[in-house]
Amino acid sequence: RPILLINGPNLNLLGTREPQIYGSETLADVVGLAKQNAEKLNVKLYDFQSNHEGAIVDRIQQARDEGVKGIIINPGAYTHTSVAIRDALLGVNIPFIELHVSNVHAREPFRHHSYFSDKAVAIIVGFGVKGYGTHSFISSLVALMGIP
Ligand code: DQA
């Protein structure tokens, strides 16, 4: 019963990118933490990062063939622009959670609209990189997604 963590554009720069907003932990740090915690719950966590919209669409389509039960996605700036990624998530019909490191609602107005929020099972916003996971947090995600 795998779940898939997707990080969109510029999240490969976590740790060095605007640290006052995004913190000092790297993408490898947060993915490692999320993986450890998923293992404790007997959930396999696949992880994927891309700066390319089409590559993210392809990865979501592949998830259906892999039997992925739930997706956690931080679409980065595509949050505010991408109908294609939204359509891919709806197309494969896999429940997903939208995650943002920063509180997008406390930032520029163009970050207030998301193409994902109205379809997400839940939204994690503004917890910093900690949003990616403590043990109990991943377990509540799995429960929310209805993964047995
Ligand atoms: C982000 C918020 C987006 O507005 C921004 O474009 C990002 C990161 C976040 O995690 O806070 O790249 O998704």
Silhouette: globular
Termini, distance in Å?
Answer: 9 Å
CATH topology-level name = Rossmann fold
Oligomeric state = single chain
Question: In percent terms, what proportion of residues is strand?
Answer: 15-25%
Radius of gyration: 14 Å
Name the bound molecules: 1,3,4-trihydroxy-5-OXO-cyclohexanecarboxylic acid
CATH-level-2 architecture: 3-Layer(aba) Sandwich
Can you give a write-up of this model?
The protein has one domain (3-144): Dehydroquinase, class II (Rossmann fold), CATH 3.40.50. The protein has 148 residues and is α/β, with parallel strands linked by helices. The longest helix has 14 residues, at 27-40. It is built from 5 helices and 5 strands. It has a 5-stranded parallel beta sheet, sandwiched between helices. It starts with a strand and ends with a helix. Helix 4 (83-92) links the parallel strand 3 and strand 4. The site of 1,3,4-trihydroxy-5-OXO-cyclohexanecarboxylic acid has 10 residues, from loops. Residues 10, 74, 76-77, 79, 100-102, 104, 111 line the site of 1,3,4-trihydroxy-5-OXO-cyclohexanecarboxylic acid (DQA). Is involved in the catabolism of quinate. Allows the utilization of quinate as carbon source via the beta-ketoadipate pathway. The active site is at residues 22, 100. The record marks 17 as: Transition state stabilizer. It catalyses: 3-dehydroquinate = 3-dehydroshikimate + H2O.
